[in-house]
Amino acid sequence: MRPVLPRLAAALAIPLLLLTACANADGGGTSTGTNATKALDTITVSGEVGSKPTVKFETKPTTLTSSGSKVVTEGTGETISKGQEVTLDYLLLNGKDGSEADTSFGKTPATFTADPAQLLPGLANGMIGKKVGSRVLVGIAPKDGFPGGQGNEQLGFGKDDALIFVLDLKTAVTPLTKATGTPVTPKAGLPTVKEDASGTPVVTVPKTAAPKKLVVQPLIKGQGAEVKSGQTITAAYVGVIYGTGKEFDSSYTSGVPLKQRIGVGALVPGFDKGIVGQTVGSRVLLILPPAEGYGTAGNAQAGIKGTDTLVFVVDILAAA
Prior knowledge:
Layout: H1 13-19, H2 34-40, E1 43-46, E2 54-57, E3 68-73, E4 85-94, E5 100-103, E6 110-113, H3 121-127, E7 135-140, E8 163-173, E9 181-183, E10 192-195, E11 201-204, E12 215-222, E13 232-241, E14 247-250, H4 251-254, E15 258-261, H5 269-275, E16 283-288, E17 310-319
Antiparallel strand pairs: 1-2, 3-7, 4-5, 4-6, 4-8, 7-8, 9-12, 10-11, 12-16, 13-14, 13-15, 13-17, 16-17
């Protein structure tokens, strides 16, 4: 069963698998590590940036004992820094035989966090320090690859197979740390929101009956760009059940912000409807009757019944 709010880019198999990887590997910038330098120099990448590349391997298998990266075509945009949300197209190949394992070219671009603690370190470090608009070849040694070092049967990787990526870096956005903007006075009778000493929103639900229709109430109006359908948002949030006030999910508790495409059905309906059109930096109170949440089935894993109305407080930190 999916989580209450999918916290990762679950629309793509590769991002989900990569984001659950361990973060203890070596990695580096351009052509880091002797083995990576020599190995990547034997791989030829051709084609225009923005279109699916053609990749040729001089030798097979291509083995890696260290991870590294090499700029194929340098872009002219800003330099990507650690912690930014990077939107990109990727092609993943198996170093064993050069076969394609997955790609986003011709599909939906992926959004990764350029942070070795949140992504495969070799992949994160392959983006950090590169310019937006660049095409980058990244090689990831098996020891730095999938969790447990056992490869990935679904994608055809054995435990000794290197991961070879070609990345076209499209955009880079620095997420806010919290909602920032102009306070908005909410309508009377809605749940109230205050911050505790740590800055975590605390929701108090009134004793009145829950609204029958979706409620979207900005509490802080951010000064950033408007969130558009199809973008990947980064958001901090807390969710409680109307009536009991019981918390069923919170990024503040888990320490994992929401990173998901918005407005495409990957999230519960009211969340999509309530966040699209808001601005980055905003804090938004959402009240979702069952039809805008999990419907009559509810979500037993989260303790949500089919008759429960949900309350979310969402800080929109980035959209890319």
